[in-house]
């Protein structure tokens, strides 16, 4: 959000005091609704009157609650308010009651601003849009895994297109199973026309020019101890990955989870003790080349394992995932861009937006999740318009494993998105 403010000051006539950032100025919210107000925890210094060994007075930190509505009121004289989606979700009523003259709703990374049609996140998104007479959403990912991911935005723009989420499903569901879950979609062209009617599209090539990228897939042999345990779950995991419900999080997919754990971080299951895994060996070989690199992995223990491999090879490396604070993320970003780090290990969803890492010459995917956009946005961190050399993107898979099926799934999703938005590139793995 600080970056958004800085850019707004460059490209507009607003003064610094005209722009107020919600949440980063107040600290992260620690409580949900608690009656008529939302409260947050803050810290203040308390003098103790006692001197420490160094002769200086000991300061005690005390936590106290502050009402968000008062903090919003304190920002009332500003003209532009930059908010996180979480702050908007939890404080939208206070915001519009205190500042009713808000009339323009701008949303960066639009697809991240809402969830399912009945979620609180989506309800706050719709409320903000209805309160304002003008709305502009910016995203390259309006279709985010499923066709119905575009529904909240379309419903805000013009509710009469579908009337309700059920109306959207009636129009676009090609097959609904016995439990009411959509297995496949149809009439992509109708959705493409609706989106095209209300959008201005700019392609990456138009903005950045040709950015040469070379894609390759490396098939790796699984270690004997890992293979022995993995094979116990492979057949059932493959069956689970045929089920659309599992991919949407409706089923546990126990065999798939176990298979991924064995491949990604066998040490947490007391498997392959003393065995260097195939993907570890490959990552170490790449690290030895000494190129600035980005490494993406889907699971947290796997990310930590990758970090250890890189450091063992002598690379200065850091990790960015959901456990990394905003402050530390910024410091890691700055250090990598300045050449102080040789590598960043990250999760796709965490590092998918907001970073420009053109310094990286090689992007390695040790594993992926089930969203095509998390893959494309991850490697595009290293291809943002200033690159003069070819970017190498490597996808690492274990032979004869569910890795192949996962890649089929995300490619299918990218094909579905391309049918609605032809400017979205279909994922390439080689």
Summarize the structure.
It contains 18 helices and 14 strands.
CATH architecture of the largest domain, by name, is 3-Layer(aba) Sandwich
**Count of individual domains:** 2
CA-based shape = globular
Query: What's the rounded overall pLDDT mean?
Result: 87
**Biggest sheet record:** 6 strands, parallel
Strand line-up of the largest beta sheet:
9-14-13-10-12-11
Overall helicity: 25-40%
Structural class: alpha/beta
Question: Can you count the helices?
Answer: 18
Uncertain residue segments? 24-38
Give the number of DSSP strands. Answer: 14
Give an overview of the whole structure.
By secondary structure, the protein is an alpha/beta fold. The chain folds into two domains: 2-27 and 72-204, Tandem AAA-ATPase domain (Rossmann fold, 3-Layer(aba) Sandwich), CATH 3.40.50.10810; 206-227 and 274-420, 3-Layer(aba) Sandwich (Rossmann fold). The protein is 39% helix and 19% strand. The protein contains 18 helices and 14 strands. It has helices spanning 2-11, 68-74, 85-98, 120-131, 151-157, 165-172, 188-197, 204-208, 224-230, 234-240, 244-247, 254-264, 278-287, 300-312, 326-337, 348-351, 372-379, 402-420, and strands spanning 19-21, 39-51, 57-67, 80-82, 104-108, 134-138, 173-176, 182-185, 213-220, 293-296, 317-320, 343-346, 362-365, 391-398. It has a six-stranded parallel β-sheet with strand order 9-14-13-10-12-11, with helices on both faces. It has a two-stranded parallel ribbon with strand order 1-4. α2 (68-74) packs across α3. The longest helix has 19 residues, at 402-420. The chain is globular, with a radius of gyration of 24 Å. The relative contact order is 0.09. Mean pLDDT is 87; it is low at 24-38.
């Amino acid at each position: 959000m600080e970056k958004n403010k800085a850019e707004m000051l460059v490209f507009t006539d607003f003064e610094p005091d005209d722009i107020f950032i919600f949440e980063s100025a107040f600290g992260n919210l620690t409580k949900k609704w608690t009656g008529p107000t939302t409260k947050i925890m803050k810290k203040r210094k308390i003098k103790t009157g006692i001197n420490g060994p160094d002769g200086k007075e000991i300061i005690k930190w005390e936590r106290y609650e502050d009402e968000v509505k008062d903090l919003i009121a304190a920002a009332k004289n500003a003209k532009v308010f930059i908010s996180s989606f979480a702050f908007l979700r939890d404080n939208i009523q206070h915001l519009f009651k205190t500042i009713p003259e808000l009339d323009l709703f701008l949303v960066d990374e639009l697809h991240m601003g809402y969830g399912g049609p009945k979620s609180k996140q989506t309800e706050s998104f719709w409320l903000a849009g209805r309160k304002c007479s003008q709305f502009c959403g910016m995203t390259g990912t309006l279709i985010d895994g499923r066709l119905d991911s575009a529904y909240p935005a379309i419903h805000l723009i013009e509710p009469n297109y579908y009337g309700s989420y059920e109306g959207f499903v009636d129009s676009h569901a090609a097959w609904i199973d016995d439990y009411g879950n959509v297995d496949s979609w149809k009439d992509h062209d109708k959705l493409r026309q609706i989106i095209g009617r209300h959008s201005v599209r700019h392609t990456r090539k138009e903005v950045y020019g040709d950015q040469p990228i070379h894609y390759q897939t490396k098939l790796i042999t699984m270690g004997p101890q890992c293979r022995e345990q993995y094979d116990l779950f492979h057949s059932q995991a493959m069956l689970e990955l045929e089920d659309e419900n599992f991919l949407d999080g409706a089923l546990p997919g126990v065999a798939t989870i176990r298979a991924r754990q064995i491949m990604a971080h066998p040490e947490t299951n007391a498997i392959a003790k003393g065995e260097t895994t195939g993907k570890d060996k490959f990552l170490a070989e790449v690290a030895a080349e000494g190129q600035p690199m980005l490494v993406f992995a889907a699971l947290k223990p796997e990310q930590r394992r990758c970090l250890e491999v890189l450091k063992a090879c002598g690379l200065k490396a850091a990790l960015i995932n959901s456990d990394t604070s905003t402050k530390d993320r910024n410091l890691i970003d700055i250090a990598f861009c300045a050449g102080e780090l040789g590598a960043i290990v990250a999760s796709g969803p965490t590092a998918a937006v907001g970073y420009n890492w053109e310094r990286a010459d090689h992007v390695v995917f040790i594993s992926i999740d089930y969203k095509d956009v998390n893959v494309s946005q991850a490697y595009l961190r290293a291809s943002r318009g200033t690159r003069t050399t070819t970017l190498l993107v490597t996808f690492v898979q274990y032979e004869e494993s569910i890795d192949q099926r996962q890649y089929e799934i995300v490619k299918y999703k990218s094909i579905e998105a391309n049918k609605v938005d032809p400017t979205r590139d279909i994922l390439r793995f080689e």
